[in-house]
Amino acid sequence: MLQTNTWSAPRKSLHSLGVSFVPTFASLKEKVATLLQRHPPTRLDLVVAIGGVVLIAGAAYLFRGRKKGPEELEKGRRTWINSIGRITDGNVIDVQELNGNGQRPAQMIVYQYDVAGVSYEASQDITYLRQTINLHSCRLGIPTSVKYDPHNPGNSIVVSETWIGLRTN
User: Fold this and answer.
1) φ and ψ at 32, to 5 degrees?
2) What pLDDT score does 11 carry?
3) Helix-then-strand count for the chain, H and E
4) Does residue 93 register a pLDDT over 80?
5) Residue pair 60/114 in contact by the 8 Å Cβ criterion
6) What's the sign of the alpha-carbon dihedral 142, 145, 146, 150?
7) How many CB atoms lie within 10 A of CB 145?
8) In terms of Cα–Cα distance, which of 133, 135, 70 is closest to 96?
9) Which of 49, 104, 121, 153 is the one with CA 20 to 30 A from 27?
10) How many percent of the chain have pLDDT more than 90?
11) Given the DSSP bridges, would you call strands 118-125 and 106-115 parallel, antiparallel or unpaired?
12) Assign residue 117 a region: left if phi > 0, alpha if psi is -120 to 50, beta otherwise?
């Protein structure tokens, strides 16, 4: 037969022992009132407090960072793929100029490439790289080198600020 121990030590609450770890609102209010009576705030205290709040708010505003625009995000993607990318062969399928709604026309290059037996078709906005390449020399079907992210082969480029995969000869 299983026997259980039913004896337990008498429990006393911490309040009954006179120990209070969590101060109540009333006790905090009394302590603040007593402190203010002993040491009333001076103008210097208020100036320092307001200055501290302004300093913290200014630092938060400066260091919060601004959101990047689409051009900066695309440039970061190109830079990332250019630095870590692997190169494979591909072909230009199409060169298009898309007219946006009220925005500058976007120039797109559409290309195809294979990685590990999987065929990918991708496009890249080359509007901001016009000074790097001559879009009119890009013919359909010309061979190109494609840099792609080895962990995500669908993420690729054919042109960046420092690298050009297009073979226009």
Assistant:
1) -65, -45
2) 56
3) 3, 5
4) yes
5) no
6) positive
7) 16
8) 135
9) 49
10) 24
11) antiparallel
12) left
Question: 117 and 107 in contact (C-beta within 8 Å)?
Answer: no
Which SS3 state, helix, strand or coil, does residue 61 take? helix
Q: b vs e for 92-116, b when ≥16 Cβ sit within 10 Å of the residue's Cβ?
A: beebeeeeeeeeeeebebebebebe
Q: How many residues does the chain have?
A: 169
pLDDT one-digit tens code per residue, 98-146:
776 667 777 888 999 999 999 999 988 888 787 777 666 667 778 889 9
In which residue are the tokens 């790289």 written?
129
57-72 residue pLDDT tens:
988 888 877 788 878 8
Query: What is the enclosing helix (H) or strand (E) of 91?
Result: strand 86-98
Q: Are the beta carbons of 166 and 93 closer than 8 angstroms?
A: no
Helix, strand, or coil (residue 98)? strand
Q: Are 157 and 146 in contact (CB under 8 A)?
A: yes
Cβ–Cβ < 8 Å for 144, 166? yes
* Pairing mode, strands 86-98 and 143-149: antiparallel
Distance from chain centroid for Cα 109: 27
> What gap in Å lies between CA 143 and CA 169, rounded to an integer?
10
Q: Which residue has the tokens 């960072």?
A: 65
